[in-house]
Amino acid sequence: MAPIKFSVEKKIPNRLGRAGILECAHGTIQTPAFVTVGTKATVKALTPEQVKELGAEVVLANTYHLYLEPGDALVKTAGGLQRFMHWEGPTMTDSGGFQVFSLGAAYGKSVSKIADARAIGASDEENPQSEPAGKLVKIDNEGVTFKSVLDGSTHRFTPERSVEIQHNIGADMIFAFDECTSPSAPLEYQREAMERTHRWAKRSLDYHESKDARKSQALFGIVQGGRFEDLRKESAKYLASMNFDGFGIGGSFNKDDMYDSVEWVNGILPEDRPRHLLGIGEPADLLGAIENGCDLFDCVAPTRMARNGALYTLHGKINISNARFTGDFTKIDEKCACYTCTHYTKAYLSHLFRAREMLAATLASIHNLYFIVNMVKKIRKSVLDGTFTEFRESFLAAYQT
Amino acid sequence: MAPIKFSVEKKIPNRLGRAGILECAHGTIQTPAFVTVGTKATVKALTPEQVKELGAEVVLANTYHLYLEPGDALVKTAGGLQRFMHWEGPTMTDSGGFQVFSLGAAYGKSVSKIADARAIGASDEENPQSEPAGKLVKIDNEGVTFKSVLDGSTHRFTPERSVEIQHNIGADMIFAFDECTSPSAPLEYQREAMERTHRWAKRSLDYHESKDARKSQALFGIVQGGRFEDLRKESAKYLASMNFDGFGIGGSFNKDDMYDSVEWVNGILPEDRPRHLLGIGEPADLLGAIENGCDLFDCVAPTRMARNGALYTLHGKINISNARFTGDFTKIDEKCACYTCTHYTKAYLSHLFRAREMLAATLASIHNLYFIVNMVKKIRKSVLDGTFTEFRESFLAAYQT
User: Per-residue pLDDT tens for B62-82?
Assistant: First the structure.
């Protein structure tokens, strides 16, 4: 029996987008769905109950971080990620590829998943401080050797090792080891990296299929190819030919061609398996990615921005630290039904941020995650109702980026 | 009608200690009770729901801090402390005296409520970093002039102003303005400060009685007198003769004579009004103070220690950052029924502390507050059951300080 079961409920007419149901060992996800990031086996500043209450259905932890601290063997001994962190729903881990490569700054260029620097929305907290190029990471055809950001010790990830670590962590859905390149990498390097990612995808899958974890954990293969149409299509065809339970779509994109890239890929990937767009989570990006056939998304932007006081509203983001909010006794967003908006005013949040109180991060994270998670739920409903286009137009008309 | 109603249910035989019921405008407190500190209108790292769930019945905020940030006028506009911070139970504010004086380091000596340095348990986070003596504070017979720790601006508290600020903040129970001295201050200075505190108590009460807030807010007078028996008794007699709704017992004490001091005072204070021992909260201190007639206690120790990884167990405190806990999959305290102990292991908490995750502070604070709040509830039950002495002996035999 397959570790996950995915079915498409309804499609957006003439588009690749769809609403579906994804059944995992630890619960069911209604797609499209925003995947909450819990980098180090905790969604920053929130209890699992708070994460669940705001509507999140699934948590993604980072393999790189858990491998270094507290170690995947310890998470395994604890009974796996879910038990360790007391999250009772479905879980995912990424492959560690993005973090490993971001340490090496992708051959001298700082890594971002989207070339146009969209500040917080495009950057990732899983991305540790960059060191000079190549200093911390060395890629060869068999794997990657890197130094720990914690203590400088040397480590090595191979496709087999990445999957083994993810078996130990024990999430419901895991990813094949991949190489994440910079959006500005030239064609020849993108091809070389893509071909390496393909070989690693096969090795990841072979290793996974040889283990018992195959029965309870779903393995997703990752499509790469940068911003080049021919590479993206070649990568999608190659991955689609393999026995993956689902697919990831990895960076890197240019801001303006992300939806095209996603459409190239999703037009080729099999319709009966879920597609996860890695590291994307700004409202406009979610609309474009869902329209073009993506089912899952993870991004640290909502929680990271929340901790910096940047809060979503239907009219765009506000910075709660702005002086004009100190005496504002309205909610962050008058139409929002989250815990934070139900009980607290902008004036109170403004006070918490100015006083550097930890509750500031908690309340802001609840609001931002609720905003994004429930925005995706509304998109899902619009797909089911046949009103996606109206929803998108109406949302984008009000939302100022 | 009085703003609060207090009744004694049962006394400890041959002692001053008692169990009682304290009815306030915003709820009922079963005494003895530990008062959770929410310095800046937030119990650090916790939502009000988490505070309530762990068993806390009342929150105390600090007048000094709220006056400086966000300002008492803003809290008033918000509808008062309860509405501002979304705490639906009873509230208190202190007079600001302790913070104001701790800034001035009480004429050249650093202020602590207990002379013997008991590290965290005796220190307070409401006590900002000390500056050289007299630099930030100037006391005269009419009031205190001080500089803000936030921006160096000059402010002045008088008894009238302290009570006015507390009216604006709007807590159920408030305190008369007092001077908190160092335990090491000589007799002559303690007498001078006590007499000033008495004059300020009368002025605080006069101001309070002239205002409508009298109907909804209870005013507590504060007994001072340091570690001198004659001063403590004189102070208790003086305060007892006045029309206060309850009483605070202020520092300073020596470690060894605190219970004596409390007994001197509570033997004189009227039995039909609640007594709040200010700033005390270590387990052994709570037992001694309750035995000797105190009903309420506030202390930042449980939450401050929690944020530093020092966690209460029935056998004493442990430091969760200790290496031996990294692979320990047992609870903090096997007999504890708090949210944290119900769902998480020491290994997980150890991981959160090492990774400097905010959830560490939340889970640790829940545990420590639950421990103290519920220890006081157990003491209350033992008073009602007539088993206080057995409870005390059994607790102290197991608990290593």
Answer: 999 999 999 999 999 999 999
pLDDT (0 to 100) of residue A152: 85
| Closest listed residue to residue B131, CA positions, set B100, B155, B160 | B100
Domain positions in chain B: 5-307, 310-398
Locus of tokens 């007498």: B191
| Tens digit of each residue's pLDDT (9 = 90 or more) over A157-166 | 999 999 999 9
Q: Which of A245, A285, A295, A298 is catalytic?
A: A298
B94 tagged catalytic: yes
Tell me how crowded residue A384 is: count the other CB atoms within 10 A of its CB.
14
- Residues of B near A (Cβ–Cβ under 8 Å) read 40-42, 44-47, 69-70, 74, 77-78, 84-86, 326-327, 329, 343-345, 347-348, 350-352, 354-355, 357-359, 361-363
Write down the CATH number for the domain with range B5-307.
Answer: 3.20.20.105
Question: Hey, are the CB atoms on B78 and A348 less than 8 Å from each other?
Answer: yes
What amino acid occupies position B265?
V
Please indicate whether residue B260 is annotated as part of the active site.
no
- Taking the C-alpha atoms of residue B131 and residue B128, their distance in angstroms, rounded to an integer, is 9
Burial of B7 (0-12, 13-18, 19+ CB in 10 A): exposed
How far is residue A95's CA from residue B212's CA, in Å, rounded to a whole number? 65
Counted residue by residue, chain B has a size of 401
A54/chain B closest Cα distance in angstroms: 15
Of A46, A92, A85, A69, the residue nearest A358 (C-alpha): A46
A245: Cβ–Cβ under 8 A, 6 or more apart, which residues? Answer: A2, A3, A4, A173, A218, A219, A220, A273
pTM: 0.93
Decide if A332 contacts A317 (C-beta within 8 A).
Answer: no
